[in-house]
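INFO  loader      accepted 1 record
INFO  loader      residues=127
INFO  predictor   begin
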Amino acid sequence: MENLNRYFDLFDQSCTSEQAFEELVSLFSDDIVFVLNGHEKQGIENWKLFVKMVFKENADIKHMFEGWKAVEGTDMFETPWAVCGKRAFGSVFTQTGKDIAKLDKNGKISYLENLPDDTNMFDTYKN
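INFO  predictor   done
INFO  writer      dumping tokens
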């Protein structure tokens, strides 16, 4: 659970800190499966590309989350979240949604699904 609890803070700090980015990457298994609004990607290299895309498009972001809770009858965890940010070209935004995650036997995040309330949030990352 420690890796899940560190995830959002490290993600936000990674916008301006290479060290935080390296720590963020270390939370994930090499064969991470992540789903962005229904579009599945695999592998740590694709995860890194996604994070870098987020920070290319945004000058700053800040997440808040309620806390990870076990999903009854599964090996998954979930949390509602909210994010506010400033895009690279200056406009501000807010977004809400839910993340669903799974940890491997070493406590690394092996699955992460991001379900934003705005279904167009990750349109630029479908390919």
